[in-house]
Prior knowledge:
Elements: H1 2-26, H2 29-32, H3 34-39, H4 60-64, H5 79-98, H6 102-124, H7 129-146, H8 149-169, H9 176-189, H10 191-216, H11 227-253
Helix pairs in contact: 1-5, 1-6, 5-6, 6-7, 6-11, 7-9, 8-9, 8-10, 9-10, 9-11, 10-11
Amino acid sequence: MLNYIIVFIGGTxxxxxxxTLALKYINGEIKNSPLKALFSRSICPCCGEKIxxxxxxxxxxxxxxxxxxxxxxxxxSPLYPLWEIIYGSLALxxxxxxxxxxxxxxxxxxxxxxxxxxxxDYYTFIIPDSLLLLFFLTSIYPVMxxxxxxxxxxxxxxxxxxxxxxxLIFPGAFGGGDLKxxxxxxxxxxxxxxxxxxxxxxxxxxxxxxxxxxxxxxxxRVRIPFAPxxxxxxxxxxxxxxxxxxxxxxxxxx
Length: 254
């Protein structure tokens, strides 16, 4: 039990960092001054003052401050502790499925970056190349451990070619960032799990897009950010992708 508590706390700390990082991409701080944005302390969105040290403690800081800035009393969004809880839960999931060590840690970082990409794209319709590069570089270690380079390159090629064709046939359906995100994920998963990723992403994305179009009454060509669905596909494929593949095989070879 103590291990799970430590893992959860570590995950909430990572969540605090990655959610704040996403906000700095969203408000343009990273683009304007990358190094300063990365190493500067968080500021209150209301008054611009630096957040107090106690308030920076994941979850507990928000509760102690009653969700308000200590300088101006302005309300701090509850999304901060919510994302810390999400990241903490993600850390628990990685620990439960893969145990401890450098390999699970690399998987957690990949998942964390994926969520960060989803948040940024949701608000800006932009997938930063720097986050995609971090996703790709972090995936190299797990790929090396598996020792199946041809399989991973096949996954990269499959998803890259698939979405290049889709983008040629349906201009504007996906952006260049979506293509690069899929390509990096294909390299990480390999050919078989890339098929699972593709199906999960397209089905959930199409369902959400159709629902959103009906709600907004703007027709099926309504634009929605697609990275959140790719991220959902990445997470689901990582944790249960092999089980889904086994189910596929059972249907074919029964």
